[in-house]
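okkk here we go again. third time trying to get the zinc ion bound version out, last two times i messed up the smiles copy paste (missing a bracket lol). double checked this time i swear
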Amino acid sequence: MVCPVCRNVEFVSYLKVNDFNVIRCKKCKLGITHPFPSTEQSLQANLETYNSEQRIQLYLTKIDYFKKRYRKYLLNIRNYKPQGKLLDVGCNIGLFLVTAKEEGFEATGIELNKECADYGVKNFELDIVNDYLENRGFQDGTFDIVTMFDVLEHIPDMRNALGEVRRVLKKDGLLVVQLPNLDSIMARITGSNWVWLTTPDHLYHFNPKNLSEFLLSNGFRIKYLRTWEPSEDFSSNFIQAFCPNGIFGRSFKKILRLSKVVLLATHLLRPFWWRKYRGGLIEVYATKV
Ligand SMILES: [Zn+2]
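finally!!
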C-alpha cells in the first residue's frame, strides 16, 4: 500500500472501528481504513449508515439550520468568487444549491444517490446529475467554484477525482473541501466512538496538515483553512461515547444535566481548540494553480 498523500509505504495501527482498523501513514499521518474496503463494501456501509429516506428527512427537519450553515460557506466563497457557476459534488437533495441560487450563484449538483438527486430535481427544481463526476464529461473550465462537503474521504482514487475537479474548474477557480479532522479534540476524546469515524464508509481520515499537503500536490493553492464543529454534535458525541447504553438504565436527570454541562463547556471552550486547528471539521478554500 502507498499513501495517497505522500507516497510513503510505512504505516502504524491507530484505532479499531467496526470490523476495520484505521492505520496511519508514518510520515504524513493520513488515516486509511484497513483492510481497504471494496467499492461494494463501502457503498453498502454508506447505505446502511444513511438510507435515502433518512438522508432526505435529516435535511428537511433541519432545513433552517443547514441553510444558515451554507450561507456562512457562501460568505467565505464570496471573498474569492463574488458570483459565477458553482458545482456541488455529492449535493444530496441539493439544499446547498438552493441556498447558492438564492445568493445569486448559478448552481449545478452531482449526486450518486438516485432518490436524493430526484428529490432535489422534483421539489427544488434543481439541476442535479445522478452520476459520477468523471462520467458526466463537463467541458474544460466550466465552473468558477467546485464544492465537496463530506465527499473526498469516500473516494477510493482521490487524485483522479481532484484531477477531474481541476479540469472542470476555470483558471483561478475555487475549490471548497470540508471533511472530518482525525486530530480534532472531539476525535481524540471519543476515540473509536468518534461519530465521524465511520468505517468502511470513510476510506481516508485527514488532519489539516495532510489535507493541505494533498491539495497542494494536486495543483491547488490554499487560501483559507479553518476547523470548527457544531457544539451540539460535540456534546451528543461525548454523551454517546461515554454513555453508550443511552438513557435506559441510568438516571435521566443525570444524563440531561451532563449533556447541558458538556454543551455549555464545548460552546465556551471550542474557540481555543479551533485556533489550534483541533475542531472536528476541516473547511478549506483553495484555488486552482
Ligand atoms: Zn502519507
